[in-house]
Amino acid sequence: MKFEENICPFCEASLRERKLAESESSIAVLAKHAVNNAQALVIPKRHFTDIAEIPANELFDLINLAKTTIALFKKIGVADDFNLIANNGVLAGQSVEHFHFHIIPRKEGDCPEPKYWLSEHLFKKLREITMTELVENAKLLRQKMADFSSNMSSTFSDDLWLNIAPSCVIEHGVVFGNTNYKKSDKSIFVGNNAIIRSGTVIYYNTKAGCNFDCGHNVLIREGSRIGNNVYVYSGTQINRDVIIGDNCIVSGYLGNGSVVESNVKMFGDLIHKYENQYSSQHEPAPVIKSGAFVGWGAKVIGGVVIGENATIGAGAVVVSDVLPETTVVGVPARPMKRLGK
Length: 341
Hints:
Elements: E1 19-22, E2 26-30, E3 33-34, E4 40-44, H1 56-75, E5 81-85, E6 101-106, H2 120-123, E7 127-128, H3 131-150, E8 162-164, E9 169-170, E10 175-176, E11 188-190, E12 195-196, E13 201-202, E14 206-208, E15 213-214, E16 219-220, E17 225-226, E18 231-232, E19 237-238, E20 243-244, E21 249-250, E22 253-254, E23 259-260, E24 265-266, E25 269-271, E26 287-288, E27 293-294, E28 299-301, E29 305-306, E30 311-312, E31 317-318, E32 327-329, E33 334-335
Parallel strand pairs: 8-11, 9-12, 10-13, 11-14, 12-15, 13-16, 14-17, 15-18, 16-19, 17-20, 18-21, 19-22, 20-23, 21-24, 22-25, 23-26, 24-27, 25-28, 26-29, 27-30, 28-31, 30-32
Antiparallel strand pairs: 1-2, 2-4, 3-7, 4-6, 5-6, 32-33
C-alpha cells in the first residue's frame, strides 16, 4: 500500500525544537503523539521511507543513537525498561512516510501484563502533546542528559573498570584491558562522542577525553592520558605513561613517558636513546610543546624538548632541543637558513 501525499513532518526544521540528541546522520526527538512525556523517536536526517533504503553506515548510526538515548534515559532515571519498535510500511502501522524508531519508556504498573504491551490499556494513554510542552520537556531532558554526561567520571562505582560514555561508537574487535597488568588502578575511561575503530587495543589505567577519534589497529598502553578532540591515525603505537593534550593529531610511535602538549600535529616517532638496551622505561622522553609540528617520518630521540610552534621537517632526526618558532630539517636536524643569510 502507498502513503497519502503529505509534507513529511520529520523533514521540517521545527523538528529540532524538540530535539533530545543527534549524531552525524540521525536525530532523537520527543514524540508528539505519546503514551508518556518521555516517549521519543529516533529518525534518519535524510528521508527514507523503508528501512531497506537506508545505507548500512546510516542505519548503524541510527541504531547507535537509539542505543545511546536509551542508555542516557536509564542513567537519568526516566525508566528502567523500554520498548524499541519500528513500523515498516502501511500494513505494519507506519503512518509517517519517513522511517523511524519509537522509544517507549516503561514504568512499573503502566500495563497489567507487560508482555502484552500493545494492549488497549496502555494505548488509552496515547495523547497529542502540545508544542509548548514538547519544547519544555525536551529542554529539561537535554539538560539532565548533559549534566549526567559532564559528570560521568564521578558517577561510576569504583569496581566498574570500563567507563565508556553512552554516546561513543565502539566498533567490533576493539579490546579493552590486558591480563598482565599488576597495579590496582585498572580503570579505562572514554569520554563523550568518541569513535574507536576495529583492531584497537586499549590497556588498563588509560583515559581518553571527549571527541576522541581513533583509527584502526591503534595500541594505547597503560598509564596514558589523551585529551579532548584528539585524532589518532590507524596503526599508531602509544606506549606507557604518554600524555597527549587537547586538539592534537597523532601518528607513528610514542615511546614511554612522551609528552605531546595541546594543538600539536605529530606524524613522526618519539623514541628513547635506549642507553639501557633492555628497557627504556626510566630514560628521559621527548617533549613536544604546544603548537609544534612534527613531519612524516621524523625521529625525535631522547629527552629533547621541541619548543612552541616549532616545525620538524619530514624525515628529520632530532637529537637536541629545538627553540620555539624554529624550523629544523636534515640528519641530524639543524635550523633552516633563511635565503640571503
